[in-house]
Inverse folding.
């Protein structure tokens, strides 16, 4: 990345730009409880960011009865759908996208949400005027931490992996980006700590989109290089 400034930024959406991580955790908890699976909320939260197939493997074990999977997904979608009209962007999300576009960066929403959920997320963000490309679950054969959704985002946008930075909120985002040698900037607003994100390989970590926006000029999104350790976390209390 040091040889070239980025030409575009790939953004995860759930938990990164829109405040949905805990809504997904509650929705999965309810879906699992209905099927008599008692899984602690904290365990579910740490799995958010994976696709539903890998999430269920992680929570229930790969040897589980997969005949329940469709029912569990449908139940999750029903519970999560109740929040659609109340979804809100995380602080500074739309302004960050517009600031990136104003700097000549192409803005790509590399989300693996289902197509019907993507529309609700985009409506909450209200920044379609600066979004270049949007992916959805149908574009990826495998979910994160596999890099398929990022591959789809690159292909659809025409951007090269060596000219982009990915912004995400989970260790699964960092892992997916690493498989393509794409630097990942972590945001802790999805509930994953700075330490966890940095430990997973994030090149910089900020509290939320607003904090990244405040430091945008010296961030990997515009410099194409990791910030110093001092810059990796903002100084907000």
């Amino acid at each position: 990345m040091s040889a070239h400034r980025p030409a575009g930024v790939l953004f995860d959406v759930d938990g990164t730009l829109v405040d949905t991580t805990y809504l997904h955790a509650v929705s999965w908890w309810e879906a699992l409880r209905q099927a008599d699976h008692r899984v602690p909320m904290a365990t579910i939260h740490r799995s958010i960011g994976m696709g539903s197939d890998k999430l269920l493997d992680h929570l229930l074990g790969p040897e589980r009865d997969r005949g329940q999977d469709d029912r569990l997904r449908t139940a999750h979608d029903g519970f999560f759908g109740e929040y659609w009209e109340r979804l809100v962007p995380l602080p500074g999300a739309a302004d960050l996208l517009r600031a990136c576009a104003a700097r000549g960066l192409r803005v790509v929403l590399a989300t693996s949400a289902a197509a019907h959920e993507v529309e609700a997320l985009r409506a909450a963000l209200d920044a379609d005027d600066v979004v270049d490309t949007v992916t959805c679950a149908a574009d990826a054969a495998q979910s994160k931490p596999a890099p398929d959704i990022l591959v789809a985002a690159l292909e659809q946008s025409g951007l090269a992996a060596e000219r982009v930075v990915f912004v995400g909120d989970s260790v699964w985002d960092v892992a997916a980006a690493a498989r393509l040698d794409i630097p990942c900037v972590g945001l802790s607003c999805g509930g994953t700590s700075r330490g966890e994100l940095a430990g997973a390989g994030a090149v910089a970590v900020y509290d939320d989109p607003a904090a990244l926006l405040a430091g945008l000029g010296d961030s990997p999104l515009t410099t194409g290089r990791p910030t110093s350790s001092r810059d990796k976390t903002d100084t907000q209390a």
Observations:
- The CA atoms of residues 203 and 226 lie 5 Å apart.
